[in-house]
């Protein structure tokens, strides 16, 4: 039986591309929402989930950090995908035919220079792959889609222009999640530990909690805050650090963090992807 990896979106989405790159031997399972993606793994419909957490241009993906602690899943890997945006048209269309381009509002904003240069008007679609499917169904040479190469392949569209994004370094980071924690040997590029915590209600609690990482030489690569249950006082933090909890300096830093927090939950300990460097 073919194993599955679940992702949010339609076939041809950038999350689908991430699945194909990271797990080419697995069947990609499209899901309507992030919650559905997580549930597909929890109920055994899929073995893994591919979840986007942040983009180098637009920052964190909304809602993901609040879903991770309650997911019951473990981060076992990270993956970085360069967001190459292509202009896709119906078969036989030329770039000169295109007067409108459809995509998710984020991608439309990432191709302003190209669209202005060619006098192409922006049309907002629900998502990138859905826009490609819509263009394919309309069969109108004047309407194109901004989407991934995979979307063009799936919906039978021609490549009219490639890599038209304004920011040549635009990259999305994904987390691969599983029902079981990762017990593989340490990665050759080091390890990442991801966790969430809430600080105690004492003066300068966050400052004191972070001090242990500095004094023990632990590099914190990410720290995000978000509210819990709509409260302005109960703030939860998501963090990524370099290292493994069994490393002596990481263990000391986590012990000090524990003193200034009400709870710490490890979401995953996994190999660092070479793409982060």
UniProtKB/TrEMBL annotation:
The keyword Lyase applies. The keyword rRNA processing does not apply. Keywords: Amino-acid biosynthesis, Aromatic amino acid biosynthesis, Lyase, Phenylalanine biosynthesis. Residues 194-271 form the ACT domain. SUPFAM superfamilies: ACT-like, Periplasmic binding protein-like II. Residues 4-179 form the Prephenate dehydratase domain. One of its GO terms (molecular function) is prephenate dehydratase activity. Its EC number is 4.2.1.51. One of its GO terms (biological process) is L-phenylalanine biosynthetic process. Pathway: Amino-acid biosynthesis; L-phenylalanine biosynthesis; phenylpyruvate from prephenate: step 1/1. It catalyses: prephenate + H(+) = 3-phenylpyruvate + CO2 + H2O. GO terms for cellular component: cytoplasm. NCBIfam families: PRK11899.1 (NF008866). PANTHER family: PREPHENATE DEHYDRATASE P PROTEIN, PREPHENATE DEHYDRATASE-RELATED. This is prephenate dehydratase.
